[in-house]
Design goal:
alpha+beta, five-stranded antiparallel sheet, four-stranded antiparallel sheet, 38% helix, globular
Length: 208
């Protein structure tokens, strides 16, 4: 855990010439690959697709229930799940909406609470190839949240959906306010990606 905290920049004395630690995921990787476009924030995507914000109690409870029985998130305690739920926002999305778009640089990840999301990879000739369909409990976009890299695929709502959204700024705030829980969340997401890569032997299909 101490090593994970050091990686996150938690628990060390801040220097006056360093940026605030709360900006770690918001800006920390944005200069690494020199993206040609700025990272897209959920607020912009939500406005574009007409997503509607949900009152917190019911979807937050749903998120905790889904993750409590998710083997990839087994390292999160009930206290960790409670801390996580505080830093997510919750939205309803109509069908046939691109919640994530291929090749954009994203600054958020999504958890499907209700409904179905199609994961499609656009081919060089323009056709979208269906890779899979994600349902309740699926995590989408965690790779770009962690490394600020381009999205691997399109994620499009097949049905009306309810989504939990974690922005980079929300993760930064969680690191600041609940550092141990944030470290376990990042570790769980990294493990989730690693196990998927080992299983597939190819670039991850869900970690867009």
């Amino acid at each position: 855990m101490k090593n994970v905290l050091r990686i996150l920049g938690i628990g060390k004395a801040a220097r006056h010439d360093e940026p605030p630690e709360s900006q770690f995921f918001t800006t920390g990787f944005q200069d690494v690959d020199l993206p040609s476009q700025p990272a897209l924030h959920w607020a912009d995507r939500a406005h574009a697709i007409g997503a509607r914000k949900l009152a917190r109690p019911a979807p937050a409870r749903r998120l905790k229930e889904l993750w409590a029985r998710d083997r990839y998130m087994a390292g999160l305690s009930p206290e960790d799940l409670e801390a996580c739920a505080r830093h997510f926002e919750f939205f309803a999305v109509d069908s046939d909406r691109d919640v994530i778009r291929q090749d954009e640089y994203g600054a958020f990840m999504l958890v499907v609470l209700h409904g179905t999301i199609a994961v499609d990879r656009q081919q060089p000739w323009g056709e979208r190839l269906r890779l899979t369909e994600s349902r309740a409990g699926s995590v989408l976009g965690e790779m770009s949240l962690l490394d600020c890299g381009p999205r691997w695929s399109y994620c499009t709502s097949v049905t009306a959906c309810e989504l939990a959204v974690l922005e980079a700024s929300g993760l930064d705030t969680m690191i600041e306010q609940h550092p141990a829980s944030a470290a376990r969340l990042v570790g769980s997401l990294a493990r989730r990606l690693s196990l998927r890569l080992r299983k597939l032997g190819t670039p991850t299909l869900h970690g867009t």
